[in-house]
Amino acid sequence: MSTSNPFGKKGWTPDRMKSQKGKTFVITGTTSGIGFETARILLSKDAKVVMLNRNPKKAADTIAALKQKLDEKIDVINITMDLGDQASVKKAAAEVLEKADRIDALICNGAIAQTPTRELTKEDWELQMGVNYFGHWTLQALLFPLIEKSKGRIVTVGSMGYDMGIKTIKFDDLNWEKDYTPNDAYSQSKLAQIMAVYELNNRLKAAGKTDIKAYACHPGSSRTSLIDTNGSFMMKVVFGLMKLTPLTQPADNGAYPELMCATEPGLDENAFYGPTGRSNWVGPVGPHEIKEHAKDKVVMKRLWNLSEKETGISWNL
Ligand SMILES: NC(=O)c1ccc[n+]([C@@H]2O[C@H](COP(=O)([O-])OP(=O)(O)OC[C@H]3O[C@@H](n4cnc5c(N)ncnc54)[C@H](OP(=O)(O)O)[C@@H]3O)[C@@H](O)[C@H]2O)c1
């Protein structure tokens, strides 16, 4: 456990958040779990929230639930977006630019995990890589000009899973035509998301663009529907049992790292933020160790170039 948490013994909590009135947060995947809690807490602090969700009915139910919990007058809208479909991401990004005049933070939270058998997106990317990584890559790039204009942030929600797979990017078989396992593919997608943050920060620094920041965080092990949505029967049983133990925490605690990265001043863009307790699954939120493979400069650069080529989208950085 970390002994020197800059936020004290209890770590970062939303008590540190001032009023967010006048600020706009764009969040992916708010229909359940950590995304829902992130939206709820930001709205409770008077922020404007633009939610990006793939299922309009679930999104409408989410807005109704948030209004019931908070207030009818909360400032929240949903724009339909499927992270696994690049055309949908591009359309949603255009709609965000139309409807929001600023973005204080883009919180890249939505994801799927542990898809039991290999599936592909419309663009023929392995599903978890397509949804978690390439979906957010394109969204971030298209919203970048407004985030920059707003002196805002990009917050990427990674996972300790970054350290549980092959610990690099499988450039010779990115889409797992060989040796697919649900865990390795999820792990790669989360490692790629984290690496893109550190590479983006390097590029921002080199370009002298210091007004915009990107942060990598993760929610530890939180009781959400992540595994129920996509995982195999076996995975559902294992995580179902884990949820009964102190190895997991409630979804609102899981939201603290991304809330912190979206709002706390003076954070370190080279850090990795999440729970600092047992295995980094639970406990006070703060910065903690990240393994070297997540900051491998050669792999990070290669991944960036490959992402521009695969999506056809350049950041001009
Ligand atoms: N829970 C954990 O212990 C844990 C651990 C490590 C990392 N994480 C990370 O935490 C983040 C939040 O996950 P969670 O645990 O809160 O899971 P969750 O309850 O399953 O929430 C995931 C959200 O992502 C959305 N989503 C999934 N596929 C999408 C797509 N193609 N397009 C748009 N939205 C999509 C879901 O929407 P639908 O309702 O439409 O499915 C849902 O709103 C993820 O990035 C996850 O990798 C979680």
Summarize the structure.
With 317 residues, the protein is an alpha/beta fold. 41% of the residues lie in helices and 14% in strands.
3D architecture notes:
α3 runs parallel beside α4 (127-149), α4 (127-149) packs parallel to α5 and α5 crosses α9 (297-311). The protein starts with 23 loop residues before the first strand and ends in a 6-residue tail after the last helix. The chain contains nine helices and ten strands. An eight-stranded mixed sheet has the order 3-2-1-4-5-6-9-10, with helices on both faces. The chain has a two-stranded parallel sheet with strand order 7-8. It has helices at 33-44, 56-69, 86-99, 127-149, 182-206, 226-230, 233-242, 251-263, 297-311; strands spanning 24-28, 48-53, 75-80, 105-108, 153-157, 213-217, 222-223, 249-250, 272-275, 285-288. NADP nicotinamide-adenine-dinucleotide phosphate is lined by residues 28-35, 53-55, 58, 81-84, 109-113, 131, 157, 159, 218-219, 221-222, 224-226, 229, 254.
CATH superfamily placement: NAD(P)-binding Rossmann-like Domain
Q: Average pLDDT value?
A: 95
**Structure class:** alpha/beta
Query: Strand order within the widest sheet?
Result: 3-2-1-4-5-6-9-10
Flag low-confidence runs. Answer: none
Shape summary: globular
Main beta-sheet annotation: 8 strands, mixed
CATH topology: Rossmann fold
> How many strands?
10
CATH class: Alpha Beta
Termini separation: 37 Å
Number of domains: 1
What is the H/E string? EHEHEHEHEHEEHHEHEEH
Strand content: 5-15%
Total DSSP helices: 9
Helix content: 40-55%
Overall radius of gyration: 18 Å
Which small-molecule species are bound to the chains here?
A: NADP nicotinamide-adenine-dinucleotide phosphate
CATH architecture identity: 3-Layer(aba) Sandwich
